[in-house]
Amino acid sequence: MGLNVAVVGATGAVGREMLAVLEQRKFPASSVRAFASQRSAGVKLPYKAGEIVVEPVLDGWHNGIDCALLSAGSSISKAIAPAAAEAGVVVIDNSSAFRMVPSVPLIVPEINADDLPPRGKGCIIANPNCSAIILLMGLTPLHRAFGVERMVVSTYQAASGAGAQAMAALEQETREAVAGGAPRATAFHEPYAFNLFSHNATVDPVTGLNGEEQKVIEESRKIWNDPSVRISVTCVRVPVMRAHCESVNVTLKTPATLAQVRERLGSFHGVSIVDDRLGNRFPTPQKASGGDDVLVGRLRADPSQLPPGASPDSPTRGFDLFVAGDQLRKGAALNAVQIAERMFL
Amino acid sequence: MGLNVAVVGATGAVGREMLAVLEQRKFPASSVRAFASQRSAGVKLPYKAGEIVVEPVLDGWHNGIDCALLSAGSSISKAIAPAAAEAGVVVIDNSSAFRMVPSVPLIVPEINADDLPPRGKGCIIANPNCSAIILLMGLTPLHRAFGVERMVVSTYQAASGAGAQAMAALEQETREAVAGGAPRATAFHEPYAFNLFSHNATVDPVTGLNGEEQKVIEESRKIWNDPSVRISVTCVRVPVMRAHCESVNVTLKTPATLAQVRERLGSFHGVSIVDDRLGNRFPTPQKASGGDDVLVGRLRADPSQLPPGASPDSPTRGFDLFVAGDQLRKGAALNAVQIAERMFL
User: Fold this and answer.
1) Nearest residue of B to residue A153, measured between CA atoms
2) Is the minimum CB–CB distance between A226 and chain B shorter than 8 Å?
3) Coil, helix or strand at residue A300
4) Among A79, A132, B268, B303, which residue's CB has the most CB atoms within a 10 Å radius?
5) A103 lies within 8 A of chain B by CB
6) Which residues of A are catalytic, by number?
C-alpha cells in the first residue's frame, strides 16, 4: 500500500529534481503523477524505467492524492494549495506563498521537524527559501551549541534559483561571449556571462533590502523560532549553474574554540566538512552540485573578534565559514521530499 | 623635457594595462621602454600610434630612467628595485615584495598621498593589493567622516588578479564547458568554468587566513595608518574576467544617516555611486570593467545593527554596501600611474 504522490510544476527545474529525488530515495509511492500548466500538458518526463505524462491542473486534480509537492510559483500555490489541504492532502509547497503565514510550518527536517503538523490529515507545509536552508544547515549546529547572536552573510547564488530558463540563458549568453559576442541581458536585468549582479528580487525602496534578503532574515528567524537573531545579508547572483555558496561571519552568544565548532558541524546530519587548509580545498559549487549534503569549510576564528594577540585556537565568539549547497536539491527538491518522508514514513 | 619611463613586466596583463593607462592619461613621457623576461624580449607591444619592442632586464636597465613601474612578480622586484631606487629611479612596485616594509610607503593617491616620499630622489613606492585598493576607495570616505571600527568583507574576485594566463584559462575552460566537456582545472586548484572557489593564495595553517586575506587586513591598516581597524575578510575567486566586487558590512565609530553616507561617498574623487533601488541597478564587474572609478552601491542601513523598530533612515553605526572596481586599472595599473603623476606632475 504505497502513497499517491503529485508533483505540481513538474516540468520546471525544481519539479524535475523532485521526480529524480523521489526515485533516488525510493520514496514508497504507488503512483506519481506530474502536473504543470496547460501549455506543458502531454510532455513526457522520465521517471524510473518509464515516463510520466504531464497533466494540466484541473478541478479535482488532487482527488486520491496523499501528498502533493508544489513548485509552480506563488500564485498557483495560493490558488490550489488551500483546497487540496482541506481535502486531506499533505501539501508541501516550495513557493514563498505561505512561508510567513503563522499557522503554516516552515520546515528544514534536520532543524525543526518538531514543528511538523500531526500526521493523518491535510495540511500545508512550506519549504523554505533555498538560501535560508543552506545557511541554516551550516549554522544550526553552532546555534544549538553556542547560540547565534548575529550573522553577516554574502551569497554567491546560482542560476537555478531562477529556474530552468535562467540556467539555459546563462549557458547561451556564455556561449555567445566566448564566441566574441557583445554582452546581452536575456534572462535578468544584467548580462550574466562572466558577470555577477545584485539578486534580481525587487528591492524595497525604504529598507534597501531585496526580496531574497528579506526572506533569508524572516525565514531564518521563523525556522529557528528566534526573532532576536540579528542578520545582515547581501544576495548576489553569480554565473554558476546549480549550487549556492554563502560566506558567513558569525558572532556566537557564548565563546567556543575552533575545535568545538568543527566537532559540532561534523556531527550534524546533512553537513559535510570540506576544510583542507594545506591543500586549499574548500566548498565549491561544483563539489556541492548533485549532492545532498551542505558543505562547510573555511572554518576559522574571525580575527576581527579575537582579542589582539589571542591565539586563533582560543575560545572566541567570532568565526568565519563558507557553505555550499545544491540549490535544486537541499535548497528545494530534496528538502521537500525529506519533509514528505517525515510525514509518511 | 618629458620623463623617461620604464614598464617592467610589460607583457603581463597589468604591464599591458600600464602602457594603455600611460597613453590614455597622456603621461608626459619623452620615452617609454618596456622590459620583461628574456623569453619575451623582442615582443612588440602597441603604444600610441606605434609599437615598443620589449627588452630583457639586463644590468644597467634603469640607466636614464626617471620612473619605473614594476609588475613582474615579487622575486623580480626584490632583485631589481633596491638598486634602481639607489640609482635615483622612482620605482613604483605592483608586487607584494615591499608593501609591508615600514620604510616603504604604500599608496592609494586619493587616500594617503601625504605618505609619498619627497620628490627629486630615488625611492620605492608600493602599489597595494587590488582587493585592498578597491575596498578602501569605497570605505575611506566613511572612515574619514565617521571612523570605521570594523568591516566584514566577502570578495568576488576576477581572473585578472592571477594574470593573463588565468584569464585565458577561464575563457578556454568555459569554451570547453559550453561544448559539453567535463570540468577541468587548468590554471587553479579547482575548475573555473561556472564555478567559484576560495582564493588560490596559500592558507596559513594556524590562522586559516589565506595570503590574499592577510594582505587586505595588513595593507588596509597601513594605508589608513590605523592598526586598530578590525577586519574579517573572505577572498573568493569567481568566473569573471577583470573586475573585483566586494560585499562589505561596516560598523562605524559614530552614527550616521544613510543620506550622510551617500553624500560622503558621492563627493569622494574616484568613487561613483551606482545605487538605483527601483531599477535594481547596482555595481557589477561589467559596469566597472575598463573604467577608472570604483563603483559603490547597495547602500543601506544594516538591519542587524539597527535597534528594533528604528527607521532605516535614522542614524546608525551599521551599513551594508557593495563595491566594484576594475582590477587591472584602479586595482593595479591606474593606481600605479596615479602615483607616478603625484611624484612628477
Assistant:
1) B154
2) no
3) strand
4) A132
5) no
6) 130, 244
Distance CA A14, CA A162 (A): 10
Number of other CB atoms surrounding residue A258 within 10 Å? 18
Contacts of B15 by beta carbon, 8 Å cutoff, 6+ apart: B7, B8, B9, B34, B36, B71, B72
Judge whether B160 and B13 are in contact, CB under 8 Å: yes
Which residue of B206, B232, B305 is in closest CB contact with A302?
B232
| Burial degree of A115 (CB within 10 A; 0-12, 13-18, 19+) | middle
**CA–CA dist B195, B174 (Å, integer):** 10
Report which secondary-structure segment, H or E, holds A234. strand A230-234
Cell (9 digits) for B171: 575563457
How does strand A50-53 pair with strand B67-70? unpaired
Q: What is the mean pLDDT of each run of 10 residues along chain B (345 residues)?
A: 94 98 97 97 97 97 98 98 98 98 98 97 98 98 98 98 97 97 96 98 98 98 98 98 98 98 98 98 98 98 93 97 98 98 97
- Phi and psi, residue A230, nearest 5°: -95, 130
- As a residue count, chain B comes to 345
User: Hey, is the C-beta of A151 within 8 angstroms of any chain B C-beta?
Assistant: yes
Chain B residues near residue A208 by CB distance under 8 angstroms:
258, 277, 298-301, 312, 320
ipTM of the shown complex: 0.97
For the entire predicted model, the pTM comes to 0.98
As a whole number of angstroms, the distance between CA A120 and CA B24 comes to 73
Q: Which of A156, A232, A277 lies nearest to residue B302, judging by beta carbons?
A: A232
